[in-house]
Amino acid sequence: MALTDPERIALEIEHPHIVELWRALVPLRSLVSFMNTGAHPDDETSEMLAVLGFQDGVDLSYACSTRGEGGQNDIGREASQQLGVLRTAEMERAADRLGLRLYWLSESPDDPIFDFGFSKSGEETLAKWGRERTLKRFVDILRQEKPDIICPTFLDIPGQHGHHRAMTEAAEEAIGLAADPAYRDSLLPAWEVSKMYLPAWSGAGQAYDDDLPPPPATLMIGGKGFDPVTGYSYARIGEQSRVCHKTQAMGRWIPTGSERDWPLHLKFSRLGLQDDNLKSGLPTCLADLGAGPDLIEADREMAAAVSAFPDSEAVLKHASNALAALRLGADKVAQRFANKIARKEAQLSKLIRTAARVECRVRLEKNVLSANDFSTVQTEFRSGLSEAHALSLALPEGWSGTMSEVRTENAPFSNPYPDTYLPGEPDTPHARLSLTTHGVVSETAIPFEVPPQVLPERSAVLSPMATVLNRSGGNRSLTFKVPAIVPADCQATLDLPEGWSARETAMGFEVKLPSDVAEGAYKVGLLLDGEPANTVIPVKYPHIAPRHMILPAEASVCVVNAGKNSARVGYIGAGNDRVDYWLSGLGLDVVSLDADDLTNEAALSEFDTIVIGIFAVRFKDGLKEAMPALRKWVSSGGTLLTLYHRPWDNWDPDRTPPARLEIGQPSLRWRVTDENAAVTVLSPDHDLFTKPNRIDSDDWAGWQKERGLYFAKSWDPIYEPLLEMADPGEAPHMGSLLAADIGKGRHIHCALILHHQMEKLVPGSFRLMVNLVSPRT
Description:
Blueprint: H1 5-13, H2 17-25, E1 33-38, H3 46-54, E2 59-64, H4 80-98, E3 101-104, H5 122-129, H6 131-145, E4 149-152, H7 162-178, E5 195-199, E6 219-221, H8 234-242, E7 262-269, H9 293-308, H10 312-330, H11 338-355, E8 359-364, E9 368-370, E10 372-382, E11 388-394, E12 399-401, E13 405-409, E14 420-421, E15 430-437, E16 440-447, E17 453-455, E18 466-470, E19 477-481, E20 492-495, E21 501-504, E22 508-512, E23 520-528, E24 531-532, E25 534-539, E26 547-552, E27 554-560, E28 568-572, H12 579-585, E29 589-592, H13 601-604, E30 609-612, H14 616-619, H15 623-635, E31 639-643, E32 661-663, E33 679-681, E34 712-715, E35 720-721, E36 723-725, E37 737-742, E38 745-750, H16 754-759, H17 763-772
Parallel strand pairs: 1-2, 1-4, 2-3, 4-5, 9-17, 18-27, 28-29, 28-30, 30-31, 31-38
Antiparallel strand pairs: 3-14, 5-7, 6-7, 8-10, 10-13, 11-15, 12-13, 15-16, 19-22, 20-23, 21-22, 23-24, 23-27, 25-26, 32-34, 33-36, 35-37, 37-38
């Protein structure tokens, strides 16, 4: 879909010309480049980067190892690779707001460099990612971007996330390898990073509690200033970037007067000089490159352009002159500085387009194309102060066309996991705008208004994509819908396991399983005209550009003996899990509720069990206020199951649960990240482990990501801890599963990551969940 007029207007409001002009001028102040490194989208030190970029003109980049596939999702149910797609798009928007050049160590959804879940060990992390693979990709990024300075966001110390520790450890090793011409795993020319800093602040907080103090500060980045044009503090500009990470609920208001400075510790320097400031010993202007009078003249003209602000015409003249002088001196610059000349040319070209008040918009009539398709091209152009212009298209493999129409011919599908994102240098397809100003020709890239997506010509959805069948019941059939077949005249059939059969229905298929079907994992494939089909999964939210994942059109089926349960279950969630879906699939009577239903005593009396999904007390409107009524219902005989919540999810230890129950923080200390950690059942004969399913060691096998998180730290003696588990070398936790008899009813609090295990079709998670929703006997 093209942008609507209100959407275009909203985007324009975000980019007033006077601000864009100033922000295009600031980079002319410096030649220094600074790379921040982290493990996840949102690890970047946004507030400090805003100071360096918007105050000092430092050229900024960020190297991030994973796409955050294992993180939480505060806005939806996307998880794993789908969450990675969403968080990649969020990180790109955050990078746009900081002018941050973005590089990913993870290059594809199946890359071993993956956010596999929380880790407490850098050694474990690098073992899972592959140390050599991680270092190779890191070296490639350093040799491509050629930063002067590297600064990780976190320290490599106990008490910190293992992914963070791994990236900080890898950074120092990668710096050495990047400078070594004998390192052959990278084919790019060697590059020497001049300095490495570490944060001289603690990374402790809600999630972490660094065991060791930070190193002493050797340098302070003043972070208490204000942008002279917008009036925003640099801290708030940083948060304007962080708010793009909506899946992680990022973005906080910085009250006036609470801005902070950023202390750094010089880990090493190749320059051998006293480190008085970030730029000490580094070339800070073109004249420092020692290439003669032309670059000195370029410096003079760039300084004049900055001084001429806000006079666009004067800025344009000086910028054009600076670009001409830069080109005259470029051939005299040593090869090791060629990247700085190229970056300065790109910055001047952007400034020229902005100062000339040129307006150029390019869009396709349709933004979703098949691999063999076409679309007309629409443009809006205002020449402003330019003397001449030319507009052309830069097209990728499989594309052809002109400024009037483009065609795809066996074009590759769009990549939702691009390994690089450079603001101002969009991937193809895009337009190229050549301008002549004061006799100087400059060129910039113009991204399409909405990045076009190339999708398969033939696709369909086999829904649901994952399901469960409970052998303990009498049901031996599954229903699949096949919506949105493209093209509509394709004939859909199923590729079934041996012994299964299918009957076509108006909406899809009814699949019959043998009466003696064995427990296990099965695949059902969708064929279109006899060929395996693709499924296109859109990832769309208002704060990101749309993108799509392309997967095989198939469904995963888990056949499990999960017992019978006649309870009537009410489920109240906030869209962060699908526990109601899985319980229904197991054959239970499940009804989704709103918070208003919980204050209706008569309505509540119809249910044996109420399940509150993860984070729901925070995100479900009215649930916090309804908890007193729910506590009363428990006392009258109901069974309440609360799934894990974070301490900040409106969880009041004394008011939210029926009896006092405190969730531990920092979360690193109150979780078991080893998905294979031994589980000790403290009360093996408790009915939660015996009815209707006898839970045994097999039920703890095959778990993914972790055992659980946000464990209870302390609780009223009325609660009985039912499990004990620990990560290697740590004291055992007893707060993963608690149960208490409350009046005539029961409260169960479960911090095991059961909702995720069900999504991954782990049999034991279904069996345990059926037990947990069984009424008290």
